[in-house]
Tetratricopeptide repeat protein
Amino acid sequence: MARLGGPLIWLLVAGPFTRADPLVMEAKPTLAQNSPAEPAQKKTSESPAVTTPADPPATPPPPPNNGGIVLTPDQKRAREAFQAGKWEEALQILEAAAKTTPNNPMPPKVLLARWCAESGQLAQARSWLEQAARDDPKHPEVFLTNGHFAFLEGRITDTILNCQAALDVLDTPRWEAAYKQQVRLQARLGLAAAYEARQDYLNAYTQLREILQADPRNARLRQRLARLLFLLHRTEEALQQWQQAQRDDPTLEPAELQLAQLYTVRHEFDQAEAWFQKAVTSHGQDVRVRRLFAVFLLEQGRIKEARSHLEAVQRLEPDSRDTRALTGYFARQERDYSTAIKIFEDLVRDYPSFPFALVNLALLLAENGDGRGKERAIALAENYVRQQPMHADARAVLAYTLLQAGREAEAERVARSALGLTLLSPDGAYFLAKVLQARGASDEARTLVQAALNNKAPMFYRQEAEELARKLVPDPASPKKNAPPSSSDSKNKKQP
């Protein structure tokens, strides 16, 4: 089921937490993928229900690391072989190394599963993981990795069960104390993320509180704890925790800024603006405050007010990637397409994996480019899908660029592959609706575009979506498709 999230501008927003969707600039891009979007195996005639959560998406569990240790020299050699396509050689290296350290906390096939997932080869990743489970069914890394894969696929209950299983199998002298501590940390982080995705904020809070008791100076975890307190409507406690986190790590975003962003995600815009103003008053020279306030005002359509904060950002960090990206987005908002294309072309050249630049340049070229430009837009969108293969929004952008290039059948195939995924922005829903409308699936298109318009999140393509919605209003005079003939029709029909 596609779940509507925030607007595409969130690709540019550095949130107070690592979001579960791809729509964040400064949360580091997730696993770099190398495969195109997987087509849907089956075409369904029924449009999915699309929900619009009132609260921000959950923080994803961190990808399980290499058993809490850096790669060994043997593992590095194996990874080089894997990257060269020599999977069997990689496995042989890992298995030979494992024989010398039988209690190595990282099973070879689990490591191969993770590397496959990182490169977008999800089916092969699952195959390696199943083999690892057969070889050592009670290994904690099997459960942690399976839980992480489940979370990425939206299987929250499976995530919880796997993380709990990882904790349960630690009660054995097989593992050293340091490794047990690392597994407990990873498992509780996974449980916290899963409960948060289920909107069971109290259980998520309980898991993080357990971790903080063992590591009270972990400012980033305290930051996440504060966010959960906010979601539990314990705002004063949340503010205190944010302030403590900032004292422990002054590089974190100011507490006022984090509250402003969370109120924005909750669509409580008056409260959000009040906290943005407090953040500017107390931290006016913090470029993050200025940049995010500019984004907030831009989302509200208040371009003139936003420009003063953009100018402050340009003074504070004139040459930074994020400043250039925000400048390009301003140009696109003001329909100065040539300037926007130039800025995003430069950004993609300098930062080939930067999601915000990839998406904006793909959309600009798809809508304004010539034939070659439209094909390049598709290539850029495919790059984005390789980075985010499990996110509906990435596939929605790709489907839209295919539609703009006249490749409608391919566009529909990719669009339908997005419908079963999560994390779809209102703009992404519009892209999918556009594709489905072009392919004659008007009912599904109508469901998607109405869900997008009903969402309170800012939307770049709102006017276009409203126009599409008007076109999709059913004509009461036209007969319904596949409707049975009326009795009067049967009576009037000539008999042979």
